[in-house]
Amino acid sequence: NAESLQLRDKDFYEKAGIDVIHDSVYSIHTDKKKVTFSRKKHIDYDKLVIATGGVPRKPPIKGIEAKNVYFLKSAKDQGDIKKAAANVKKGIALVGSGFIGSECAAALKMKYKDQFDVHLVGMESEPLELALGKEVGAMVRSEHEKHGVQVHMNKGVKSIIEGPDGEAVGVKLSGNVTLDVDMVIVGTGSVPCTKFLERTETGIKLDKQGAIVTDPFLQTSHPDIYAAGDVASFPYWYTGQMTRVE
Ligand SMILES: Cc1cc2nc3c(=O)[nH]c(=O)nc-3n(C[C@H](O)[C@H](O)[C@H](O)COP(=O)(O)OP(=O)(O)OC[C@H]3O[C@@H](n4cnc5c(N)ncnc54)[C@H](O)[C@@H]3O)c2cc1C
């Protein structure tokens, strides 16, 4: 369960003098050095670190809102997916062949063996290619196939076919391929959580995807504000290319 995954318990924060506020940040006022919350409180800061991560990207695919289409981010998502997978008869399509798609395919195959089909769909030529390159990706594909995962690479999803009750009953891929499934898990990257920065003039530079642009030390375009984790786009030390972990 989620509690067992906590790195630190409540006592740790109390002993360390860290004030944990369970609330959502509504806006940041860099001129007054204030962070405001949805429940109208605010705190003052001298320096600020933004580490708001991202939420799963929902690609604009027809049928993406169908029942039985899942995204994986939280412990609750994981519980919902487990429950739904237990009722699958025909198969599951994993849309996106990055870490989430690839790991889900392996986990489902290990648990359910040949009870239903497991399809892994990706736009690149190999699974995990964007993160690990073609060569390692080809090894991952071969492992998947050895274990019975049906891998569909160089394929985009055209639409998710909905049944009479709005449930996903199939997935149409490019190249006229249709997968007969009764559950879809989408793992197509994440969108940075930076909406709260758009509510005021912060002077914090965002990239086209809404990620916070930083220098090599994770300092943003505002000298008192830093960004870290999945929300940050930083220059990769080796190439200098701007990089964001998705
Ligand atoms: C299924 C899954 C498996 C993964 N496996 C691995 C793995 O094996 N190895 C690995 O290295 N990485 C893995 N990752 C990625 C890893 O989880 C992320 O890289 C990491 O969690 C990023 O940390 P973060 O603190 O930047 O963002 P997050 O962990 O997303 O935390 C952001 C926090 O900010 C909060 N927040 C957002 N907006 C606001 C707001 N306006 N006000 C207040 N709070 C806000 C969110 O609620 C959240 O609590 C996995 C991710 C997933 C989804």
Automatic annotation (TrEMBL):
It holds the Pfam family Pyr_redox_2. It comes from the Eukaryota. GO terms for molecular function: oxidoreductase activity, acting on NAD(P)H. Its cofactor is FAD. The keyword Cell membrane does not apply. Residues 16-235 form the FAD/NAD(P)-binding domain. Keywords: FAD, Flavoprotein, Oxidoreductase. InterPro entries: FAD-oxidoreductase/Apoptosis (IPR050446), FAD/NAD-bd_sf (IPR036188), FAD/NAD-binding_dom (IPR023753). GO terms for cellular component: cytoplasm. Coiled coil: none annotated. This is FAD/NAD(P)-binding domain-containing protein. It comes from Strombidium inclinatum. The lineage of its organism: Eukaryota, Sar, Alveolata, Ciliophora, Intramacronucleata.
